[in-house]
Write a sequence for this structure.
């Protein structure tokens, strides 16, 4: 409760939230709540595809809840009204199949091939996320940026986690992370102990 108070109740601003994971449907309430409390919301993982599609971007064969386009648009409207910046991927790591060692390429987010799946965010997006982490005094993280369980689709999540951990160790960031996938991703990156607080 103390960590959540520092993260969302009465946080030191600016506050940046990273929310990832597979589906928007499981996190609608969280997103609606966060846009009213944070200064910037970074959306990654499969759920970013739903926002991209709602914005008119073709996401190929990527995991996407097309039936939630209206919900995604509503969240973006509420964010704009609350003065919360929404950060969506600028590029993606795309493969034709989701398996270890699958051939992959990084493409601009509006150039995803029709038979491609976005399985991670690319270097430009990682740089953008790192820049937002640098601006933040408080970071709240729930959900990975890509399909981190299989290499090389763990790179963005690992890079962002290491960057947030370094800022935290330097005393420049209060970092609160939570959720099973998030804990697994931070452990995978070797930085779970460096965050201010990690909740299962």
């Amino acid at each position: 409760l103390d960590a959540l108070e520092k993260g969302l109740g009465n946080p030191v601003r600016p506050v940046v939230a990273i929310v990832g994971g597979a589906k928007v449907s499981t996190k609608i309430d969280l997103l609606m709540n966060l846009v009213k409390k944070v200064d910037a919301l970074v959306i990654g993982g499969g759920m970013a595809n739903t926002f991209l599609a709602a914005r008119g971007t073709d996401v190929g064969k990527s995991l996407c809840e097309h039936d939630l386009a209206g919900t995604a648009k509503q969240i973006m409207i509420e964010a704009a009204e609350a003065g919360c910046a929404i950060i969506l991927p600028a590029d993606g790591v795309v493969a034709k199949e989701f398996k270890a060692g699958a051939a992959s390429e990084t493409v601009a987010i509006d150039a995803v091939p029709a038979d491609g799946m976005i399985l991670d965010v690319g270097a430009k997006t990682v740089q953008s996320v790192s820049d937002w982490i640098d601006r933040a005094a408080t970071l709240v993280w729930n959900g990975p940026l890509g399909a981190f369980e299989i290499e090389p689709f763990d790179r963005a999540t690992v890079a962002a986690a290491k960057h947030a951990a370094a800022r935290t160790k330097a005393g420049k960031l209060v970092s609160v992370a939570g959720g099973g996938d998030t804990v697994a991703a931070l452990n995978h990156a070797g930085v779970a102990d460096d965050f201010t607080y990690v909740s299962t």
Observations:
- The two ends are 13 Å apart (CA to CA).
